[in-house]
Design a protein that fits this description.
The chain is mainly α. The protein contains 9 helices and no strands. It folds into 3 domains: 42 residues, Winged helix-like DNA-binding domain superfamily/Winged helix DNA-binding domain (Arc Repressor Mutant, subunit A); 45 residues, Winged helix-like DNA-binding domain superfamily/Winged helix DNA-binding domain (Arc Repressor Mutant, subunit A, Orthogonal Bundle), CATH 1.10.10.10; 51 residues, Winged helix-like DNA-binding domain superfamily/Winged helix DNA-binding domain (Arc Repressor Mutant, subunit A, Orthogonal Bundle), CATH 1.10.10.10. The longest helix is centred in the middle third of the chain and has 14 residues.
């Protein structure tokens, strides 16, 4: 008769979560608490994961920023999401610096590409410009980028 598996330790649970994807420290602690791990044990397990290098808020921030930028989200939305994960502003700035270093921070080009794919080459009516502006704002692009893209004529997309 096979016995039941022993209940995983908080550290094992944390590691199982981190193997699937990166997590911020607050997010990992919250997920452990949601799985019935007492708050102090959750904090301890998260600290052990960070000490061992399994969890790193900067690595998480860089990964999330890179992923969201590649998915067509703008810097305003990415910053808001990082803040919602409890990432410190200094780490957010480091993540955006890493994007810049990799050449992935040309927000104007990204916005133009999104508009081109979504709306075609030209925004020749006021209604089309408004739709494109709303689309970019929802994606998290700032007003300057939105204005630059939606005021562009057809030749500006080439």
């Amino acid at each position: 008769m096979a016995g039941r598996r022993p209940e995983p330790t908080p550290a094992q649970r944390a590691l199982a979560l981190l193997v699937r994807r990166e997590h911020s420290r607050p997010e990992l602690a919250r997920k452990l608490r949601a799985r019935g791990v007492p708050a102090e044990e959750a904090r301890s397990a998260v600290a052990r994961m960070a000490e061992a290098g399994w969890q790193d808020d900067l690595r998480f921030a860089c990964s999330l920023a890179r992923s969201r930028a590649a998915g067509g989200q703008g810097p305003v939305r990415i910053r808001a999401e990082l803040a919602s994960h409890g990432i410190a502003e200094a780490l957010v700035e480091e993540a955006f610096a890493a994007l810049a270093e990799a050449g992935d921070d040309d927000w104007l080009a990204r916005a133009r590409d999104l508009v081109r794919r979504r709306f075609g080459q030209a925004l020749d009516t006021l209604q089309a410009r408004r739709k494109a502006a709303d689309f970019l704002l929802r994606r998290g692009f700032d007003g300057d980028v939105v204005r630059a893209v939606t005021r562009a004529g057809p030749l500006d997309f080439d």
